[in-house]
Amino acid sequence: MVTLNVNGVRREVKAPDDTPLLYVLRNDLELIGPQFGCGLAQCGACSVLIDGKEARSCVTPVASVANQEIITLEGLPARWAKQKGLSGAEAKNTLHPVQQAWIEEQTPQCGFCQNGMMIKATELLESNPKPTLAQIKEAFTTSGPSPNLCRCGTYVAIIEAVQHAATIMAKGR
Ligand code: FES
Ligand code: FES
Question: Fewer CB near the last or first residue (10 Å), C or N of the chain?
Fold first, then answer.
């Protein structure tokens, strides 16, 4: 039995210690934002935030993150609501600015990679609210274990969405 803190909720899961966190999230907890792409920490599709940092859940043994704060794509709205001190009622109708920007910019094509793109964008904007173009490119290419890959080639749209999300976050809406 492993105890996890996922999206602010304590969850008990029965899984061998070395089970990839991704399998537990998708198969046991039915959180299907994180995607299985390469399974080798080389694409970013499976990314989650662990204690605020992007991590590749496909190569993260579940027992290694027991009691750490795990946030999936599904947990981003509540994370933003908490950061902004929104009430429960307001929070219900709230998207994270990164998700809002992704919708308004119509960023995804097939969408498969976009979980990781939004997780990476959230990590970046929480530490650097006004990133330069170079800093955005760096975040998605050299800051993780590998570049975040998009086989549809939405990279320009992702940059625009990150810039838009930064604007939304600065306004605090
Ligand atoms: S599926 Fe985890 S990095 Fe590709
Ligand atoms: S939108 Fe299709 S892989 Fe990125």
Answer: N
Task: Name the closest-CA residue to atom 3, ligand 1.
Answer: 41
- Does the domain spanning 2-73 belong to CATH 1.10.10.200? no
Q: Express each pLDDT in 140-166 by its tens digit.
A: 999 999 999 999 999 999 999 999 999
Ligand number nearest CA of 38 is 1
In three-state secondary structure terms, 38 is coil
CATH for the stretch 76-171 = 1.10.150.120
Domain locations along the chain? 2-73, 76-171
The two structure tokens encoding residue 3: 């105890």
The strand pair at 69-71 and 2-6 is best described as parallel
How far away, in angstroms, is 149 Cα from ligand 1 center?
A: 10
Nearest in space to 76 (alpha carbons), one of 46, 98, 106: 98
Q: How far is the CA of 45 from the centre of ligand 1 (A)?
A: 5
Which structure tokens are listed for 143? 């800051």
User: Quick one: which of 30, 24, 54 has its CA closest to 115?
Assistant: 54
* Residues in the chain, overall count: 173
For residue 38, the ligand 1 atom closest to its alpha carbon is: 4
pTM of the predicted model as reported, rounded to 2 decimal places: 0.97
Sign for the pseudo-dihedral over CA of 89, 165, 74, 51: negative
